[in-house]
């Protein structure tokens, strides 16, 4: 008998997960970050899970979205985009301008909607895979590799969140200069076997970050290195950095903000440029590719609208001879599993993907995903191959319920103001 794929129940659980004091150009991560966990149940009692950003603006869209799902089938994946169009969006919450408050490029209503779609799409694929006895990668056409490589995501950071701030502790220690960045990289390598390293920049004046990259290159000869200041530099600064350390870099990620500035940089250097900030929607591709502004697009299945859209993006990139890899923001194991499934199906994946996962001490899964030799093995179990730990989910949800609202929106500048009361998100270019 064929399975009944009808969706009978959808559950949304906003949570707060511990996050270390990682520094970026806007400020510092808050001690807890909001995520949203989506669960879908079919008439046969099969469940599927998805994960996405959990700030209120996502929740406000996810609720009416969930209400429209019941009665549809988990295989109706294209319908998710129709539902997204139906869900009313208060555009005043978003900006069509470059949002310097965001590290993921322009924030539009469309992008918010797609970030919500992605969690439902992943949950549907998980349930569909379980119903059919197939892994998610098989539903995407099948894996072309058995393991997906990730890079160590190095951050300047404090040892602890500011005194008096409720937070979970970790044992990583501070990293505020080249020697401690190298030490952090060593631990990433020891713990997870990573062989490629990305440093989040835009935190210190460029010369200090240049020194950190040089120290990494000396400590790990031959290992691919990247530096990502999130658009904090002017075109001239970007070109100076490219000239000084370009030879050590696999690529420079978003040195300058926006396609015109990236195009100017790209025109005057041979160092490949990657982005998760100026190409974040299909609409942004034409200008960026026509101007040869980027050589690698870092997809994020959340804001690109899911795993199937990620494959479509990869196909467009392949058509234009542009590389593709993956961006990451603070995320848990459901997202890592989804990233791994889709990445396993993309033919021309020549760069290790990014993942924040090693920084997350908490998860909602019964078993954490593991990096071996810097890679995550592609699961062949039905669906995503992960299992929700309901007690952990409840615990993290209670933390969200108990919060007075201050942590329900990710705000790196607000977190920085706790340590530096006068802090405002620097205008870009900062240097
Ligand atoms: O987690 O601080 C961070 C990152 O800066 C993140 O917000 C970015 O979206 O990792 C991202 C990037 O590659 O730009
Ligand atoms: Mg980036």
Total domain count = 2
Q: What's the total helix number?
A: 14
Order of strands in the sheet with the most strands?
7-8-9-10-11-12-13
Task: Catalogue the ligands.
Answer: D-glucarate, magnesium ion
| Global structural class | alpha/beta
Low-confidence runs of at least 5 consecutive residues:
90-101
CATH top level of the largest domain?
Alpha Beta
CATH architecture of the largest domain: Alpha-Beta Barrel
Characterize the structure shown.
It is a single chain. The chain has about 425 residues and is α/β, with parallel strands linked by helices. The chain has 2 domains: about 5-135 and about 390-400, Enolase-like, N-terminal domain (Enolase-like, domain 1); about 140-375, Enolase-like C-terminal domain (TIM Barrel), CATH 3.20.20. It is built from 14 helices and 14 strands. The protein has a 7-stranded parallel sheet with strand order 7-8-9-10-11-12-13. Strands 1-4-5 form a 3-stranded antiparallel sheet. Strands 2-3 form a two-stranded antiparallel sheet. Strand 11 (about 275), helix 9 and strand 12 (about 295-300) form a beta-alpha-beta unit. Helix 1 (about 55-70) crosses helix 3 (about 110-130), helix 5 crosses helix 6 (about 205-220) and helix 11 (about 305-320) packs parallel to helix 12. The longest helix has 24 residues, at about 110-130. It is globular. The chain starts with 6 loop residues before the first strand and ends in a 12-residue tail after the last helix. Mean pLDDT is about 95; it is low at about 90-100. Bound molecules: D-glucarate and magnesium ion (MG). The site of D-glucarate has 13 residues, from loops.
């Amino acid at each position: 008998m064929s399975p009944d794929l009808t969706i009978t129940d959808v559950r949304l659980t906003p949570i707060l997960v511990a996050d270390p004091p990682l520094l970026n150009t806007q400020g510092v991560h808050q001690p807890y970050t909001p995520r949203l966990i989506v669960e879908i149940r079919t008439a046969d009692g099969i469940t599927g899970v998805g994960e996405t950003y959990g700030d209120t603006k996502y929740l406000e869209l996810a609720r009416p979205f969930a209400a429209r799902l019941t009665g549809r089938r988990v295989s109706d994946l294209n319908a998710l985009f129709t539902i997204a169009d139906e869900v009313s969006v208060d555009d005043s919450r978003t900006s069509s301008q470059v949002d310097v408050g965001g590290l993921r490029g322009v924030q539009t209503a469309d992008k918010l909607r797609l970030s919500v779609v992605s969690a439902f799409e992943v949950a549907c694929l998980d349930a569909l895979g379980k119903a059919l006895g197939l892994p998610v990668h098989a539903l995407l056409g099948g894996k072309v590799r058995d393991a997906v490589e990730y890079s160590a995501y190095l951050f300047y950071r404090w040892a602890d969140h500011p005194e008096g701030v409720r937070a979970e502790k970790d044992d990583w220690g501070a990293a505020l200069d080249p020697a401690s960045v190298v030490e952090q990289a060593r631990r990433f390598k020891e713990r997870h076997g990573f062989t490629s390293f990305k440093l989040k920049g835009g935190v210190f004046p460029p010369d200090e970050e240049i020194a950190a990259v040089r120290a990494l290159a000396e400590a790990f000869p031959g290992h691919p290195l990247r530096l990502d200041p999130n658009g904090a530099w002017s075109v001239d600064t970007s070109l100076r950095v490219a000239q000084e350390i370009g030879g050590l870099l696999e690529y420079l990620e978003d040195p300058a903000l926006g396609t015109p500035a990236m195009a100017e940089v790209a025109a005057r250097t041979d160092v490949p440029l990657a982005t998760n900030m100026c190409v974040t929607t299909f609409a942004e591709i034409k200008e960026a590719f026509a101007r040869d502004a980027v050589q690698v697009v870092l997809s994020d299945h959340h804001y690109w609208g899911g795993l199937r859209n990620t494959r479509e993006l990869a196909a467009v990139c392949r058509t234009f001879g542009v590389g593709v890899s993956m961006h990451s923001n603070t995320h848990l194991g459901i997202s890592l599993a989804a990233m791994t499934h889709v990445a396993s199906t993309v033919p021309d994946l020549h760069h290790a993907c990014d993942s924040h996962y090693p920084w997350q001490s908490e998860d909602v899964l019964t078993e954490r995903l593991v990096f071996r030799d810097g890679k995550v093995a592609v699961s062949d179990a039905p669906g995503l191959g992960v299992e929700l730990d309901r007690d952990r989910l409840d615990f993290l949800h209670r933390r969200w319920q108990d919060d007075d609202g201050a942590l329900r929106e990710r705000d790196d500048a607000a977190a920085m103001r706790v340590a530096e009361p006068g802090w405002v998100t620097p205008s870009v270019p900062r240097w």
